[in-house]
Amino acid sequence: xxxxxxxxxxxxxxxxxxxxxxxxxxxxxxxxxxxxxxxxxxxxxxxxxxxxxxxxxxxxxxxxxxxxxxxxxxxxxxxxxxxxxxxxxxxxxxxxx
Length: 97
Ligand code: SF4
Description:
The protein has 2 helices and 5 strands; from the N terminus they run ββααβββ. A 5-stranded antiparallel beta sheet has the order 1-2-3-4-5, covered by helices on one side.
């Protein structure tokens, strides 16, 4: 396992936050903006249940490097499709219930 090239997902019922270690520049913006959720010295370091989805999306949007990205569920009562928006890429994932 390469700690410098990890991709981790943290989810609640509405949102998945994807974190890519290789892009993190340790600016601390996420911790400063939402300290209840982002705990860099703990595991898991993102405790997504400690804030609502809007607060989390707002904090993720302040990540200057793109290490954090939100995946948002659409069609919540059917097969759920998640989209992640990144500067140059769009990933589509499908979850089967
Ligand atoms: S805001 Fe982004 S770049 Fe800064 S510490 Fe958090 S994840 Fe890393």
